[in-house]
Amino acid sequence: GDSSTTTTSSASPTLSTTTASNSAPSGNKILKIGLKADPPNLDPYGSSALVDRMVQNSIFDKLFDLDKDGKIIPMLAESYEVDSAGKNYTIKLKSGVKFQDGTDFNAEVVKFNFERNKEDKSKRKNELKFVDKITVVDPSIVKIELSQPFSPFISVLTDRAGMMVSPEAVKKYGDDFLNHPVGTGPFIFVEHVNGDHVTLKRNDNYWNGKPKLDGVEFKVFTNGPAAIQNLKSGQLDLLDDLTVATKLIPSIKEDANLTVISNPGMGYQGIHLNTTKEPFTNKYLRAAVDRAIDRDTVIKVLMDGYASPANSPFAPGNLAYGDSDKVEKPDPAIIKDLLAKGGKPDGFSFKFQIGTSPSQEQFGAVVQNMLKPYNITVELEKIEFGQLLENGDKGNFQALQIGWSGRPDPDQSFYDFVVTKGPQNYSHSSIPEIDKLATEGRQELDDAKRKAIYDKAMTILHDEANYVYLYHVNNVFGLSKKISGFNYVPDGVFRTATIDKK
Amino acid sequence: MKEFKKFFRTGLGLIGALIIVSLLLAAIFAQQIAPIDPNAQDYNHILEKPSRDHFFGTDDLGRDIFSRVIRGAQISIKAAVISVGIAMLIGIPIGLLSGYYRGFWDEWIVMRSVDAMQAFPFLILALAIAAVLGTGFGNAMLAIGIGFAPSFVRITRGQVLALRSLEYIQAAKAIGVKDRNIIFGHILPNALSPIIIQSTLAMASGILAEASLSYLGLGVQPPAPSWGSMLNQAQGLLSAAPYAAYFPGAAIFLVVLGFNLLGDGLQQYLDPKVKE
Amino acid sequence: MSKPLLEVRGLTKFFPIKQGFFNRTYGYVRAVDGVHFQVSTGETLGIVGESGCGKSTTGRSIIRLIEPTAGEVLFEGKDLVKLPNEVMRRMRKDIQIIFQDPYASLNPRKTIRQILLEPLHVHQVGTKAERIQNIEEMIEIVGLKKEHLDRYPHDFSGGQRQRIGIARALIVKPKLIIADEAVSALDVSIQAQILNLLKDLKKKLNLTVIFISHDLSVIKHTCDRVAVMYLGKIVEIADKQELFRNPCHPYTKALLSALPVADPLVKRARIILKGDLPSPTNPPSGCSFHTRCEYAKDICKSIAPTLTEIYAGQLVSCHFVQEGNDHIALHEDTWRKEVKHEL
Amino acid sequence: MSLLLEITNLKTSFRTVHGKITVVDGVHFSMLPGQTLGIVGESGSGKSVTSLSIMGLLPQTGYAEGEIRFNGQDLLSYSEKQMQNIRGNEISMIFQDPLTSLNPLHTIGRQIQESIRIHQKLKKVEAKQKVIALLKAVGMPRPEEIYHEYPYQLSGGMRQRVMIAMAMACEPKLIIADEPTTALDVTIQAQILDLMRELKEHSDTSILLITHDLGIVAEMCDQVIVMYAGQVVEETDVNTLFDNPKHPYTIGLMNSLPDINKDREYLAAIPGSVPFAHQMPRGCRYSTRCSQVMEQCLSEAPPLIAKANHKCRCWLFAEGGLGYEQTAPGSEGINQILSY
Amino acid sequence: MSFLIRRIALTIPILFLVSIMTFSLIHLIPGDPARVILGQEATPESYQTLRHELGLDQPIVIQYVNWLGKVLRGDLGMSITDHVPVIQLISQRLPATIELTIGTFIVAVLIAIPTGILAAARRKTWLDYTSTFTALGGMSVPNFWLGMMLIIFFSVKHNWLPSSGYTPITQNLAQNITAMILPCLATGLRESAVLMRMLRSSLLDVVNMDFVRTAKAKGLNEFRTIIGHVLRNALIPVVTTSGIMIAGLLGGLVITESIFSIPGFGRLIVESVFKRDYVTVQGAILISAALVVLVNLCVDLLYAAIDPRIRAGEG
Ligand SMILES: Nc1ncnc2c1ncn2[C@@H]1O[C@H](COP(=O)(O)OP(=O)(O)OP(=O)(O)O)[C@@H](O)[C@H]1O
Ligand SMILES: Nc1ncnc2c1ncn2[C@@H]1O[C@H](COP(=O)(O)OP(=O)(O)OP(=O)(O)O)[C@@H](O)[C@H]1O
Ligand SMILES: [Mg+2]
Ligand SMILES: [Mg+2]
């Protein structure tokens, strides 16, 4: 029988964060989604974890969204205009949209959300830092003035910064809104049992047509293989990330009840080389490391092919993606030459800080192995994630493994990472030319011109090699065949509104 | 000789000793037993089933699991000896002094701290200490050592309390022997049996704890072949390559069993309370 | 009488009983409660009494194996109780103790040689060679052989171990020996060996001994003077001959009469005491013996008698004896009323 | 009168690390109804093992051979089930240490009741009444309250009274008392011995009294057995024994006792100590310590020789040798034997 | 009663020490919570803001005093990463762990009691040796490995039992139980070994005691002796061991919980350590220590139920 139908979640009153108005979803078309981590904060305002977005996208609608090709499409916005200076945006909103608590969605709401997200404590502040002024023109039109041209602006609004929360609910719950999120989205928050699950029920009054599912349940599985086991046994319908256990993907593919969806993702994986610490103050030595790693093999060994080789932050599908991302097979002659130029013809050694998970360990071991033939000795150091970030901030490392999950706009994977003193410029590089190009890139509105800018920047960065781009991980989902209407969106986040379940 | 025979009769203890000796031999002659480099990656032979070339198969980086398991013996022995050594170094002197002098320090500082530390779940204590000290083998050992120390404080103190009222200790005092000599010359040697038993049993736990910490990612630095971290790697592959989990787990099991058997045997042999 | 070697004045030891909140002391075991006595050089003083009456505590308090709660222990005029630890440690050369349990009183991990060398070493007696000679002599004095020196205690029988314990106590030539139930754990035949040995040594070395035992016949055999203890107090102290001929305290009488005599022809009227020994935690008011004493009057319940000399050298702690009450005379006869039945 | 208990050639052995050791080797004796038989001997001479053999309560490693006839029936041939009917019913036992011999977790009442309810199938109420009567009989104050109390609440003497009450519960024909007063103080011992004497006077129960105290034997017993190294070395009535002991060991034992009524400079100690069970001398077991030892003693073990009502395991007794008579107690000669 | 009060009184300094130890440990752990919360997208300003908001810029003693003050008023604070009251996090996570603990204990007892008695009764026979050896074996199996082996056999190979997931009892009893079987087995087998050995040696100790001989001398048969006299006395050390075991399990199930993806209390602590959610860690460890203390209290009560000496406050 269909084992998943037996689990209708009933929120136990003592444990749940349910309010009186929220009751468990009725009916049995409950979509069960496996998540690899517990979403810590469902309020877009304070959310910083990637996994939050998986849930938020079912509760909140955004002003804009991505379509399955990664193109920006309006969502709560009807349309928008931008002036030629790239500083004034006029957004027209859909009308007749109501929040899940029954309040109206309108221009005031948008203004409220922008202002809220610009507060000091907001995690969105950085994304919206160029937003200068928000004016309500009429209930369905807002005008947004930027302090400087910022081409990723609309792209930013396809994510958390564009999610519209109910001002009434925010007023009602205050700081506790994060435990009572209310949006305009297809599903209504029911409960969140920390570390275990989040339950949503259908929003019958959804503006974009009544969702087909009765509800959605996100189950947390920190243990990848366990999640896969649950997918196979029918306890889960959808699994967010199969790359945590790529070795098990074939067995899912073999399963007649399941499909695997694998698409290029937006992010990248690689290694920061600290340009302020020996030996990587020397760009030839950085380049030697960069050129010595065989991306194809790395992908084959670590990702079983569920990734594409990288040489830039721009993944396939990104507007800046192109030749700058092409990789060449390592050539021992070139590497020896680089080592010689770097003054270390007999090789050198460095400490490489990696995370503590098994896959990160494997990553380190593979890098270690690939550098060995050139007498570059790698000593691995496992560091916990928080410490890793701190070391990155402070430059307490020689080499450090941290990737980026990626965003639709090239700037979102570029600017902060490469400009002098950029918050994510862990390599601590300072290249005036790059600083200039990065700024140009975010101010230019024309796509073709932007690509040219980024291409130019990448040639410089290839030469400098302060970050070793290794691969773009695919977004790989496991999907039960009972599910229909699933649309893949390149940001890797599920859109549940269209999904149906047999 | 009679002593040896007595020990011999406790056959299980002997099996334990045998297992540990084999482990020692494996650690010493790792190079000869498993000549394949445990860290050599062979991307053409990933996750292969056990075969003549790779007795235990290969892991997800194409490394020879047999070699890694054998080398793992070195780490395990070090883990056992170092962690328990640290625990004893901390625990025994504290236990001796606080048991001998009693009083406020003993009752309110030492024993309450021991209580408090034992109210912590052990693994979480070790984990927190390891997190404080940072990952790495040495720190993991220190963490486990500190985690084990309270049990040595307790057992040593218990012995001291039992011994200090014994007439030969009183006699030493009556003779005018200095406290230091009473503690280290008379009490410690007589308190040793249970401490030795405890230490063998703790070594078993030490190996398990090292494996657990490594399993949680706080143990040795990669690519060192700790059995715990091998299992951690293998866990993701249970359905694809279960044998990657069989062997390191079996190795841990065997060695821990060895120490437990030895500890049990020693107990039969040293502890007069365990009657024939 | 010459100046006493040891004079104990008002020796008191209360063991705190800790319980309740934060181990608060809520009571005391009054193990020894104001004990006075003297021991002269060359004399053997016996302390006798039932289990738990405080004999061992008295003995151990004298050499400060237990720190007394109050009182003075004047040894050659110096108050041991007040000595700093280090000075006391050195004083221990002069006062030694022999323990009861021959199994527990020797460190099982040391050879007899090590056991005997330790006191010499601690007190820096003689050169190395002299020490060796010293222990070899001593081991023969206590009736063992030189060959025994390199063995471990477990190779010896109980009696032999007790000899080793005696040798350890004597090797530093102490002025005072405290023998705490030194023969109680031994079988009669072995006990006799040890008693003989002690007697012999006493003569040879002019030892002063405090001999603690619960066995009246052993006390009688060994001692010159005897103190009878009951619930932490001395109830009677007298010259041996006097005490056994004319016990004055009702408890002493009862104790003597309770002793089984190894002669079926002696049938005598016993004084069977009623009840049990009261708890030292909560001793009876007044005379602590009044709960079991058949002569107890009201005064006994309220006022504790003091130890008073009634005859020369015979001190008794009883209201009636002191008042010259005639129950003593009366009773004196009863317990001696032995009738020999011929078969 | 027919014999109540008759033990012939009892041999009790233990399987140990050092192989089989025989700790009771050829014990013979018999008891009449109503008699009090004392067994004395040094520690380890096999007194307790003998009594446990009778009760069939040897530890698993031990086994008894020979014959133990109780009312004519050989107990050694009894099944465990049959023995259970005997124990506590026809033969009961009082142990040395009253503290450890009572179950600390059960009330006094429950513990005494147990045997009554098993053997006499009494109802609870009746059993309780009987227990209270028993407690009264052994001189317990406040029996109704004591019934509900636990062993830790009682003193040593009271616990031993409980043990006695328990032993008497089913009016057994034989009570084996293994050092019933050793753990007690003299004044308490006097109380308990007094009680036992009194109880015996009111019933015709036989008592097998095991002790190492000759004083107790003299006071309590009719007939006495002296054991040495697992053997009976002498058996006779109590007056004969004290008046005219025959075995050198018995004599030695008596002379080594400090006597409250006599003043002696030295005691006549027996030199040496009891040989270990696994290294017994070939001849007489006492030969290693005997002051009268002869050639014959070293090579040939003497049997238990009976003369009139006096049995003795000594070659001198067989010969009735003269030098032997001289060493009777009181003679000063033996006092010269020094222990070292 | 007084022993109970004393017991409770004794726990206060223990809990106090635990809180100090936890607090200092967690604040010694490198890696600033603010940094972890902010993740990769942090800017220096947002970092400072958050530190201030969390009170991390205050001296550590002040932080401790503030925290303690709140705890004394019954407020364990808000999780800094999950933004819910710590008490709620704990109450969400505790049921699974308690259930796991009980399940483990049941498995342990079900196996240990019969085998322990059997081994003691048939001492020095092959039965005894086999069970002793098996128990030593059981004690030696790393429970994470055992967990994996059980998953391989029961879930991967045969798909008889789910390998993971947790359904609250209140939701679906059958699912709850099927999901609990493997994890309880994985930890229970080891604990049963410990318990069995304890019971065996305790039984053997008691069997040799004098009062057992007394019981036999009264004519009790083997069965009545064992049940009426031996077992109850032998249970005393077993109860202690069980207490220690349960106390250890409450926080020590981390690994089992992570292998079987059970949202338990142990994992909460570990995750919070990794997330540097020090408020949760402090609260959770304090609660876990309190639970340990509570379990010990129950053990003492059980003691008292078994042993009249303890009831009277003696011994
Ligand atoms: N360390 C101690 N702590 C508490 N009470 C003690 C201690 N030592 C002895 N006592 C108590 O003091 C009292 C006297 O004890 P002590 O050992 O002096 O008696 P004793 O006369 O030597 O008895 P015994 O004949 O049994 O050796 C007893 O009630 C005993 O319980
Ligand atoms: N279970 C046993 N296994 C081996 N030897 C035993 C066992 N029980 C007793 N013995 C030995 O049997 C001998 C006689 O012991 P038993 O207990 O009968 O002596 P006893 O005369 O009662 O001595 P005590 O006066 O000390 O009670 C001793 O040497 C003892 O070591
Ligand atoms: Mg004493
Ligand atoms: Mg005996």
TrEMBL record, chain B:
Residues 73-263 form the ABC transmembrane type-1 domain. It is found in: Cell membrane. It comes from the Bacteria. The chain crosses the membrane at residues 79-101, 122-149, 243-263. It holds the Pfam family BPD_transp_1. It is a multi-pass membrane protein. InterPro entries: BP-dependent_transpt_permease (IPR050366), MetI-like (IPR000515), MetI-like_sf (IPR035906), OppC_N (IPR025966). Keywords: Cell membrane, Membrane, Transmembrane, Transmembrane helix, Transport. Its main location: membrane. Belongs to the binding-protein-dependent transport system permease family. This is ABC transporter permease.
TrEMBL record, chain C:
It comes from the Bacteria. The keyword ATP-binding applies. It holds the Pfam family ABC_tran. Keywords: ATP-binding, Nucleotide-binding, Transport. Coiled coil: none annotated. GO terms for molecular function: ATP binding. Residues 6-256 form the ABC transporter domain. The keyword Transport applies. InterPro entries: AAA+_ATPase, ABC_transp_ATP-bind, ABC_transporter-like_ATP-bd, ABC_transporter-like_CS, Oligopep_ABC_C, P-loop_NTPase. SUPFAM superfamilies: P-loop containing nucleoside triphosphate hydrolases. Belongs to the ABC transporter superfamily. This is Dipeptide ABC transporter ATP-binding protein. It comes from Paenibacillus chondroitinus.
TrEMBL record, chain D:
The keyword Transcription regulation does not apply. InterPro entries: AAA+_ATPase, ABC_Ni/Peptide_Import, ABC_transporter-like_ATP-bd, ABC_transporter-like_CS, Oligopep_ABC_C, P-loop_NTPase. One of its GO terms (molecular function) is ATP binding. Keywords: ATP-binding, Cell membrane, Membrane, Nucleotide-binding, Transport. PROSITE patterns: ABC_TRANSPORTER_1, ABC_TRANSPORTER_2. Residues 5-254 form the ABC transporter domain. Its main location: membrane. Belongs to the ABC transporter superfamily. This is ABC transporter ATP-binding protein. It comes from Paenibacillus chondroitinus.
TrEMBL record, chain E:
Signal peptide: none annotated. It is a multi-pass membrane protein. Keywords: Cell membrane, Membrane, Transmembrane, Transmembrane helix, Transport. It comes from the Bacteria. It is found in: Cell membrane. Pfam families: BPD_transp_1, BPD_transp_1_N. CDD domains: TM_PBP2 (cd06261). Residues 94-303 form the ABC transmembrane type-1 domain. The chain crosses the membrane at residues 7-29, 100-121, 133-153, 173-190, 234-255, 284-306. Belongs to the binding-protein-dependent transport system permease family. This is ABC transporter permease. The lineage of its organism: Bacteria, Bacillati, Bacillota, Bacilli, Bacillales.
